[in-house]
Amino acid sequence: MAVRNREFDGDFDHLDPELSSVMNEALSALRDRCAVARSELYDGFWAALSYGAVRTAASDAQTYSSTGSTFIPPVKVDIQVAPSDYDPPEHTEFRKIIQKFFTRSGVAAVEAPLRSLVRARLVELAAAGKSDFVPGLGRYAPPLAIALAMGLPPEDGEKFVNWTTEMLSSAMAGDFSTNRRISKVMLDYAAQQLDARRDDGESAVITAIANGRVAGRPLTPTEKVGMIRGLVLAGNESAANSISTMLYHIATVAGLRERLIERPELIPSMIDESLRLESPLIGIGRTVVADTTLAGQSLRSGERLLFVFNSANHDPEIFPQPEEFQCPRDRNSHLAFGFGVHRCVGEHLALLQMRIIAEEVLRLVPDYRLDSEHPEWAPGRQFRGLARLPVTFPSRMRSTRGR
Ligand code: HEM
Pick from 9, 246, 316, 391: CA 20 to 30 A from residue 257's CA? Predict the structure, then answer.
């Protein structure tokens, strides 16, 4: 065990099941000792803990490469995920294919259909009088949002998430034949969608990927699957976690719920503070490709580095009283969406989902109550999220009409 009495007893282990319940205190104690910590676990890696160290390294894709695997320990895959697993200049070309669909205005068309699906879901949940918001809303909305943003029928989002999850778990188990089988299913699905919209030009992510080009040539079938998979992998788990964590914060931070009801314009600041305080992606890895120095620590080519977002986002040099939920927080330049060329493509889609859910929950079931105020964080993963969030709805639901 690596965490004892809220201190790392030996090597830092971001996957230690014991870490989830003492995450912020343990990271704070370690960050006070060093900005970049060494761990001998998983064949050895460095952990960037301070805000400055994470931001500096994330800004330098020349020295810190994303090829190979961005997981620590590495996950061997047969299909490179794009754009995440590429460095510039290839990364820039892959990213350009999808970027325009994920700007603030690019995702605006998702709002109306997603809002009406979320409302209908809340009506269903409230009718039952109680729910678990993790499956109830957290895991419900992201597949719909991804499908809508990709220009696919919303009900197909779940299919993509299942395919992608199965591909990742089979790759982790070294079962590449399952990977190949699912790749083919995904490509057949994409081909069907393309047939149905041959004349649409590049009006949706799926058609842009199908017609995408890198280095002056069309994408190969494997690259197309890698791009679809990249979006679904990156867009599902973090978003699911961010939604449940936000609903936990609204219910437990003293006075927050009332303030948001009175001043809904504070919802975006609340969302940012929730992402800062409990960042959904704990860390992401890089491979050092040239000897360098980071926050005074010498790193050698070939070594691995983990950006620990949950530590950087609690750095007291940048965030005064980092353990407090402040809404609004002055200059909340958190790194929950990363930094530099790999900064999250889906940021605006994620913020949109969170805002719709916050607004609809506060409008339709504003007095939802948690069964327990103690968060039950899912242990031992690279993601920070609640295992369960059981709630009850004490009063009848407000009208769903209007707006
Ligand atoms: C609150 C929810 C989310 C969080 C906290 C989050 C966090 C992140 C972070 C930290 C990165 C940087 C990874 C790196 O530096 O290697 C990233 C990249 C990425 N995210 Fe998100 N993400 C979220 C939602 C989404 C959504 C909804 C989508 C799209 C459907 C998405 C798509 C991507 C993609 C494609 C990348 C790779 C970008 C690149 O390598 O250029 N993310 N995300």
Answer: 316
Q: pLDDT of 146-163, one tens digit each?
A: 999 988 888 888 887 888
pTM of the predicted structure, to 2 decimals: 0.94
List the beta bridge partners of residue 294.
297
pLDDT at residue number 403:
47
3 phi/psi in degrees, rounded to 5: -110, 120
d(CA 219, CA 214): 6
The residue whose C-alpha atom lies closest to atom 37 belonging to ligand 1 is 84
Predicted pLDDT at 5 = 54
Average pLDDT rounded to a whole number, residues 86-112: 96
Best residue among 337, 341, 343 to mutate for probing ligand 1's pocket (most ligand atoms within 8 Å of CB) is 337
List the alpha helices (DSSP H) in 90-175. Answer: 90-99, 111-127, 133, 141-150, 157-172
Task: Check pocket membership of 344 for ligand 1, CB cut-off 6 A.
Answer: yes
Residue 340 Cα, ligand 1 centroid: separation in angstroms?
12
Q: Ligand 1 pocket: which of 246, 344, 355 to mutate (most atoms <8 Å of CB)?
A: 344
Q: Tokens standing for 34? A: 């060093």
Of all residues in the chain, what percent are helix, strand and coil, respectively (each to 5)?
50, 10, 40
**Cα 282 vs. chain centroid, distance in angstroms?**
9
Integer angstrom CA distances of residue 253 from 325, 396, 401: 7, 24, 29
User: Which atom of ligand 1 is closest in space to residue 340's alpha carbon?
Assistant: 15
Distance 80 CA to ligand 1 centre (A): 16
Q: What is the mean pLDDT of the chain?
A: 91
Omega cis (within 30) before 322: no
